[in-house]
Each structure stands twice: as structure tokens, then as C-alpha cells.
Amino acid sequence: MPKVLIVSPRFPPTNAADLHRVRTSLRYYRQFGWEPAVLCVTPGSSDGVNDPALEESLPKDVHVIPVEAWSEKKSRRFGFGHLDYRCLVPMFFAGYKLLKRQHYDVVFFSTTAFLTFVLGPLWKSWFGCKIVYDFQDPWFQGETSPYTRENVPGKWWKYRLGQIAARSFESFALGHADHVISVSPGYVKTLLERYPQISKKKYTVIPFGAEEQDFIFVRDRKIKHNIFQLSEGLTRWVSVGRAGPDMDSVLKVFFEQLAIFRKNDPAFASRLRVHFVGTNYSPSDRTSKVVMPLASQYGVQDIVEEHSERIPYFQALSLYTESDAVLLIGSTSADYTASKVFNCVLSKKPVLALFHEGSLVSKIVPQFSNFHLGQFKSDPSEHAYASVVLGGIKWLRDARCQNLEIDRELEPWSAKQLTRAQCLVFDRVCEK
């Protein structure tokens, strides 16, 4: 059986958005003819929330090779602390030793710690392995960057220097890629325009899959969240995931129309609570509220609550199951694809999705009966979009879902089927 080495610096029990493609695929790789191993960073030296339940959900027979990244505390003395920089050298040596000892047919980089991508060409030249990259976010952002001097996290000069380096490293890595998987056709379009010398045949769009076993795990373990207590008479809408500058204009329209909705239906609004959870990726000691200031601008702060810290993954699923409805907030960028879209489907709750019409989400969610899509053409501030959002809020108030219908709609998008798509990519690159 051919072997795939998966490079995923963040890995359970660390909880981070970029590890879930690997996590949900691990139980299926062997069914499609591939023996997986995972090269990752130890949880103590990683940068995500510690979530032991994630590790418990993994198959017990997967070969995991943990590597100690450089200490964040010590690294910050020298002006850097991001996981990309701290794990690069330790992962290089660990991967080198591993590949020298054991042949892997494919090395699959599935992470947003993009600097590790530069290891691919080195290992390929020395060991003859095929290299496949997974673009879950943009690496070099260029003109699509949502950051300015005013809203950039950290120092502006560091961000600009990082982007200059990203442009060079991205070109180096992709020049040696055997294939690129991406969650978004927009990312593929950008990369094709940036690197026209790379054939379109080397790209495949594969979103994160729907893993029903995760919801079964929550039910069987009786996992509970701590965001709210179930209160008779209150209606709970929840949004789980990051917020940020690229989502602000979408949220502004939502809050503006929520204020109008409350004026028109004060009885329902008096019972409504809208929860935004995990809006900030910063550690708990450095996190800050990013949604509440916008809610306050439109006078709906009394029905909006923000818990900015990330919560454990299975607690987030528990939050979905105990809510009355789900909000899925998109970006002003057409390239943005929410990795949690299928968790929202699996919640079997009414979901209001507010996205750019060019997003992959806007192409996928109309297939699901528990979704209402409010899409804008280029800018959420378009005059017509306000009424679209208000209509979505009214739909969310009254919607009901048919579980059996949702199960049938989800089948082609299951983690199993999308793992099969990954393995077909691995098969193709090894045929060359």
C-alpha cells in the first residue's frame, strides 16, 4: 500500500481550524488505498487551544510523529512567535530523518502554517517523493489583503515583511508542486493568474467534508458547552468562528437589519439572543471583542453576546445542536470558504448564510434545505442587499428542517467521499 506523509503542524489535541481536513480524513485513507502518517507539532509547543476530546476522536492506529517547536516565549525575544517560524527548522530535521528511514510516495502539506511548504521542494529533491499542497487560505494575499495599518494584528512592518517573504516562498514552493488542493475555486483562479506556467490540471478544489461521526461523538459523550443555559422562552441564534475586518461590512448590514427587525417584531426580538463565539484567534490572555462594537453601533448590543475566545471543537458542535438557528457569516472576499459549512448543515438547524456570490459556499449551500443564502454581488453595502438580509432574518425566525432530506443531500459531501477525492489526487501524481 502506498504511503502518504501528512504535514499538519497543528494536530489534536490542539484545536485549530486548519487541522480538520486531516482529522476527518484519517479514518478513510486506508479504504482508498493509502497508509497515512502525520508529522505535527507537540501540543505544548503549538499555538491553539488544548482540546483533549479531539485526540480521543482520532483512529487509534494512526502513526503520529510529534515534533517540539521552538518556545514561543523565547522566540518572541528575537521578534517572532508565529508557529510557522518556530516549527520550520525542527520539522525540517524530523521530516528529513523520517524520509531517510522510510519511503513515502506523497508528502501532503495540509496547514495554514504556510512557511512549512518550503520543505516540500527540499524533501522532493533528496527523496523523490511527490508533493501536494492544500491551500485553505491565501498565503501571499497581495491586493486581496483585508489588513491596513489601522487593523493589522501586530506591527504593520512585520506584516508587510511577512508578505514580501510569502510572495517569494510561495513561488518557490509551487514551482515544485505535483498538485495543489484548495478549498476555494477563487484561490485556484488567483494562483493560476499569478503562476501561468503551472498547468490548470495540477489544481483540484475539495472543500472540508461533512463528518457525521463528530455529532455522534458529542451525543455519546454527552459533551456540553458553557456559553448559555437553556432558558424557557428564549430563542438562541449562534455564530461560531472568527470575525475580522473582511467580515465587518457583512456584520454591519446584519446588525442594521436586526435593528429594523426588532422594531417590526418586538415581541420575538425580546426573546432573541444572538451569540458570537470564538471570534478572535488570539490566546485567551490577549483576546478582545470584535463583534460587540459593531452591534453597539446599531443599538442591538442588548440582544447580542460575544464570547471572543475559541472553545473546544466538540463544545462548538454541542452549541449548534442546542441552538434554535445558526448564522454563517462570510467575507467580502469571494475566495473565502468557511470550513465549518458542513457542520452547519449537520446541525440540522436553520442556517442563514451571508456570502459573496462568487464564494464556493454560495454554490454549495443552495443544495441544502436547511439553508437560506443571502448573497451580495461585490459589496455588502449594495442598497438591495439590506432587504435580502432582512428577508433572511425573517426566514430564520420561522424556518423548520426535515432531517431525512438533509441526510440525503449531504451524502456527496461526506468526509469519506471527499477523502476519496484526495486519494484520487495522490493516485494521479504517482502515475506520472
Structure described in brief:
The protein has helices spanning 20-25, 52-56, 72-76, 83-101, 119-127, 156-174, 185-194, 212-221, 248-264, 266-269, 292-297, 313-322, 341-346, 360-364, 383-398, 403-410, 415-431, and strands at 3-7, 14-15, 35-41, 49-50, 63-67, 106-110, 130-135, 179-182, 203-205, 235-240, 272-277, 304-307, 325-329, 351-356, 371-376. The chain has 432 residues and is α/β, with parallel strands linked by helices.
Overview of the structural elements:
It is a single chain. With 432 residues, the protein is of the alpha/beta class. It has two domains: 3-209 and 414-431, Rossmann fold (3-Layer(aba) Sandwich); 212-412, Glycogen Phosphorylase B (Rossmann fold, 3-Layer(aba) Sandwich). The chain contains 17 helices and 15 strands. It has helices at residues 20-25, 52-56, 72-76, 83-101, 119-127, 156-174, 185-194, 212-221, 248-264, 266-269, 292-297, 313-322, 341-346, 360-364, 383-398, 403-410, 415-431, and strands at residues 3-7, 14-15, 35-41, 49-50, 63-67, 106-110, 130-135, 179-182, 203-205, 235-240, 272-277, 304-307, 325-329, 351-356, 371-376. The strands form three sheets. It has a seven-stranded parallel sheet with strand order 5-3-1-6-7-8-9, sandwiched between helices. Strand 8 (179-182), helix 7 and strand 9 (203-205) form a beta-alpha-beta unit. Helix 8 crosses helix 12 (313-322) and helix 9 packs across helix 15. The chain is globular and about 70 Å long. 46% of the residues are buried. The model has no long low-confidence stretch (mean pLDDT 92).
